[in-house]
Write a structure and sequence with these properties.
This protein is of the alpha+beta class. The chain has one domain: Nucleotidyltransferase, domain 5 (2-Layer Sandwich). It is 35% helix and 13% strand. The chain is built from five helices and five strands. The strands form two sheets. A three-stranded antiparallel beta sheet has the order 1-2-3, sandwiched between helices. Strands 4-5 form a two-stranded parallel sheet. Keywords: DNA integration, DNA recombination, DNA-directed DNA polymerase, Endonuclease, Hydrolase, Magnesium, Metal-binding, Nuclease, Nucleotidyltransferase, RNA-directed DNA polymerase, Transferase.
Length: 188
């Protein structure tokens, strides 16, 4: 699994997130996204990811590849990985091409985020929602790396259902289960 961070991004999201961490599985090209308030959340994310992947997909996490950022070189992260048998690989300094699987993904997803926010005329504080949407749709889009399969298909063994997808930023309506107000009252 290739891992990389992006940020700080300003303005922060409405929830105060300023960074993101992207995980890309080399075999399936499936992407996992974590929005972060600070870079120090890396170990907690790796633990969540590890447990989730092994329980939900019966998938053994064997190797992670990162750059030499201090959060990936921490004693705590190293101890966690060595304790559960995860091999850590690092790129050489100033050599992002050595981790090109995730570096290219970072470049691509952020270009899409910028385009989507500009096309919709949305406030840049929605970058977290736009990024989540991009990762979600890329996991459900065919890729040459998998011979035309989707990362979702490679991971789950079935085609994804995309009937629910709408363009990012389109007008949407929320259904309110119970209504107790005046029929002519504004909801905003």
């Amino acid at each position: 699994v290739h891992i990389d961070k992006g940020g700080p991004i300003t303005p922060p999201t409405f929830g105060g997130k300023m960074h993101y961490e992207l995980y890309v599985d080399e075999g399936t090209r499936y992407k996992w996204l974590f929005l972060l308030a600070s870079k120090s959340e890396s170990l907690a994310n790796l633990k969540k990811f590890h447990v989730s992947v092994e329980r939900q997909h019966d998938y053994k996490l064997k190797t992670i590849m990162t750059d030499n950022a201090k959060e990936y070189m921490s004693k705590e992260l190293n101890a966690y990985c060595s304790g559960i048998g995860i091999q850590q690989l690092y790129t050489n300094p100033y050599s992002p091409e050595e981790n090109c699987v995730v570096e290219k993904s970072n470049y691509t997803v952020m270009n899409k985020v910028r385009c989507m926010l500009q096309a919709c005329g949305m406030d840049n504080r929605y970058w977290g929602e736009a990024l989540s949407y991009v990762v979600y749709t890329e996991n459900r889009s065919p890729t040459k790396a998998l011979g035309g399969k989707t990362p979702f298909e490679a991971l789950f063994g079935r085609k994804p259902n995309i009937d629910h997808l709408c363009p990012f930023g389109c007008t949407a309506f929320a259904f309110l289960e119970t209504w107790t107000g005046n029929a002519l009252e504004r909801l905003d």
